[in-house]
Amino acid sequence: MINVEHLTKRYGAQLAVSDVSFSCAPGTVTGFLGPNGAGKSTTLRAVCGLTLPTSGMATVGGRPYRELPNAGRRVGVLLDAGAQHSGRTGKETLALAALVMGVPGTRVDEMLELVGLAGKPAGKRVGKYSLGMRQRLGLATALLGDPEVLVLDEPANGLDPDGIFWMRGLLRGFADRGGTVLLSSHLLREVEAVADQLVVIAGGRIVAQGSSEQLLASTGTVVRARDREALTGALAAAGIGVVAGPADALIADGPAEAVGIAAATGGVPLLELRPAGGDRLEELFRSLTGPSAGGAPAAPQMQETRA
Ligand SMILES: Nc1ncnc2c1ncn2[C@@H]1O[C@H](COP(=O)(O)OP(=O)(O)OP(=O)(O)O)[C@@H](O)[C@H]1O
C-alpha cells in the first residue's frame, strides 16, 4: 500500500508539488499522469525517500521508505534508467544489486530471462545498451528483491511497441498476484490499457483522480454544430456547461437527450451528438500537454477530481 498525504515540495521559490494526496492499493496498477514538469518525479522521489517533503508525507506499508528495513526487498524502484553504471555489464549490475539486497545469485539469471536480457545482452556493458535495454535492466533490478510494491518513473521510455506491450503484461501480472504498482507517464494512452486507477497532476496539483473506468467513461456528451457560439448559448440557457471537445466539437456536461433538446429549443441544428466516453479525459490531457498549454492547470473546472 502506498499513501501520499498532503505532500508539498518547494525548491526555493519553486513549488514543485502542492498538497498532493492519493493512495495505491495492493492488487492494482496506478497510472500517475501529467505533462512535463507537472511534479510526477518529485512525488515518486518522495515516495522512495529520495526527496524530503516540505510538508505532508509519503509512506509505503504505513512507514516512510527510509524507515523500511531492507527497503529494496519491499519496494522495487526504477526512477532513472540512465543512472546505471555504464562500465558494468547487465549481469554484473544485477549481481551487485543482489549482493547488496541479500538475494540469492540464482535470481539474477531469472530476472535477466524475465526482462529479455539473458544470453549475449547480459554480458554487454550497460554503456552499450539502448535506452530500451536500460529500462529492461532497470525493471529487472526493481524486481530482483521480489518486492510487493513497484515505483516506476516513465518505465516505457525507449521501449518499442512490442516492449511496451510486454511491460504492460508484466506489470498486470505483478498486480494480479497482489502487488502494488505506481507508474508515471506523460502519455495517457500508454497507461490506460494497464492502469486500474489514474491520478492526473498538472502544475504540481492533482487535477483528476479515480478509477480508469470512471475517468475514461466519464459522463458528458460530444456535441457539434456549425455555430458553436449559438450552441454554447442554447446549452447555457438550459443550465448545461461545456468545455472544448475534439476538433471543433464541445463536450457538454449532461446526457445526450438533454443536450439534444436544449439545442433544438435554441434552434441550433446539430452535426454530431454522442456520449463522450473517454474524450473528456483525453481533452483534459490535450489541454495540459498540447502546444497551447501554459503549464497552468486548465482542468480544475472540469471537476474530475474525486476524493
Ligand atoms: N532539484 C530541483 N530543484 C529545483 N526545481 C526542481 C527540482 N526538481 C524538480 N524541480 C521543478 O519542480 C517541478 C516539477 O518537476 P518534476 O521533475 O517533478 O516534474 P515531472 O512531472 O516529473 O516532469 P517530467 O515529465 O518532465 O519528468 C518542475 O518545475 C521542475 O523544474
Automatic annotation (TrEMBL):
Which residues does the UniProt record annotate as the domain ABC transporter?
2-228
**Chain residue ranges for the region called Disordered:** 288-307
Single GO term (MF): ATP binding
Q: Compositional bias (Low complexity) spans?
A: 290-300
* PROSITE patterns noted in UniProt: ABC_TRANSPORTER_1 (PS00211), ABC_TRANSPORTER_2 (PS50893)
- Indicate the transmembrane segments per the record: none
Keyword Transport assigned to the entry: answer is yes
Question: Which keywords has UniProt assigned to this entry?
Answer: ATP-binding, Nucleotide-binding, Transport
Protein family: Belongs to the ABC transporter superfamily.
Please identify the protein, giving its name as recorded: ATP-binding cassette domain-containing protein
Which organism was this protein described from?
A: Blastococcus goldschmidtiae
